[in-house]
């Protein structure tokens, strides 16, 4: 990670869970980190809770709802004005809504999942790519995907969520090809965890004492690994499962 010291990382969904763990890991690795979140006060509290003063100074909180394009544009404009641009983007923001596809009156919930998990990821990636290309930076974009972006377990509570993650799988390869066609060396990585112990896990799964789960820090470590690989190496897809998972 030495080559990223002092470089700028933007992390979406930074207020809790995986996003909070990623923010701390990248800041501890020496990067200037901008945490985007709707609940920006949580990122500020996370920053204030860091023991090392130098690390605290490297962490910045910006209010942003990635389901709203105007918020994304405003956030990336702030990063450009403050730091010159972004070098690493981690698309972590995601939502899951228990709204069956065939249930009446569910349009708002379904649209929120797609707008956040798919369109938010695409628009943030677009803005980050343009920043990197303009400055001739061989940057890195990381998508926090899911194992349900590769297969669909029999869990009706997931609703449209797997479809949104399948889209991330496809978008990762599409972006890789577009980045190459644009003549850049910008990397893109999809990280697909199994069940992670966060607030997003449905209640019925949290109550299962026998269900193996990953910790948010496990995913943050994977992000640091992928970003820290040599320029010649691109981790395209990294799948992480807890030991003992059987679905």
How does this model look, in words?
Helices cover 43% and strands 15% of the residues. It has 247 residues and is α/β, with parallel strands linked by helices. It has a seven-stranded parallel beta sheet with strand order 3-2-1-4-5-6-7, sandwiched between helices. α1 (17-28) packs across α8, α4 (69-83) runs parallel beside α5 and α5 packs parallel to α6 (161-181). The protein is globular and about 45 Å long. The relative contact order is 0.14. The mean pLDDT is 94.
List the helices and strands and how they pair.
Blueprint (H helix, E strand, L loop, with lengths): L7 E5 L4 H12 L3 E6 L2 H9 L4 H6 E5 L5 H15 L4 E4 L15 H28 L5 E5 L16 H21 L5 E7 L9 H4 L9 H12 L9 E4 L7
Parallel strand pairs: 1-2, 1-4, 2-3, 4-5, 5-6, 6-7
Specify the biggest β-sheet.
7 strands, parallel
Low-pLDDT windows of residues = none
Side by side, the strands of the main sheet go: 3-2-1-4-5-6-7
Secondary structure tally, helices: 8
- Strand-residue proportion: 5-15%
Give the integer mean of the pLDDT values: 94
Please state the structural category.
alpha/beta
Please provide the count of β strands. Answer: 7
Could you say which overall geometry the principal axes of the C-alpha atoms support? globular
- Taking all Cα atoms into account, the compactness measure Rg is 17 Å
Which H/E pattern describes the elements?
EHEHHEHEHEHEHHE
Gap between N and C termini? 34 Å
Q: Helix coverage percent of residues? A: 40-55%
Keywords, separated by commas or semicolons:
alpha/beta; globular; 8 helices; about 15% strand; about 250 residues; seven-stranded parallel beta sheet
């Amino acid at each position: 990670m030495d080559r990223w010291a002092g470089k700028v990382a933007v992390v979406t969904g930074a207020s809790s869970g995986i996003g909070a763990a990623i923010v701390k890991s990248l800041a501890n690795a020496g990067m200037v980190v901008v945490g985007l979140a709707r609940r920006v006060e949580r990122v500020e509290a996370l920053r204030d809770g860091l023991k090392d003063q130098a690390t605290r100074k490297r962490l910045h909180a910006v209010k942003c709802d990635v389901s709203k394009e105007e918020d994304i544009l405003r956030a990336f404009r702030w990063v450009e004005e403050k730091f010159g641009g972004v070098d690493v983007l981690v698309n972590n923001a995601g939502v899951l809504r228990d709204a069956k596809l065939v249930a009446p009156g569910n349009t708002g919930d379904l649209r929120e999942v797609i707008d956040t998990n798919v369109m938010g990821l695409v628009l943030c990636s677009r803005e980050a790519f343009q920043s990197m290309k303009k400055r001739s930076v061989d940057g890195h974009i990381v998508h926090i995907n899911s194992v349900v972006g590769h297969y669909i377990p029999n869990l009706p509570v997931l609703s449209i969520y797997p479809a949104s993650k399948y889209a991330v799988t496809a978008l990762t390869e599409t972006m890789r090809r577009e980045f190459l066609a644009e003549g850049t060396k910008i990397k893109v990585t999809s990280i697909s965890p199994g069940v992670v112990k966060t607030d997003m896990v449905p209640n019925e799964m949290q109550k299962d004492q026998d269900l193996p789960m990953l910790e948010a820090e496990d995913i943050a470590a994977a992000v640091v690994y992928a970003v820290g690989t040599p320029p010649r190496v691109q981790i395209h897809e990294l799948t992480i499962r807890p030991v003992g998972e059987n679905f």
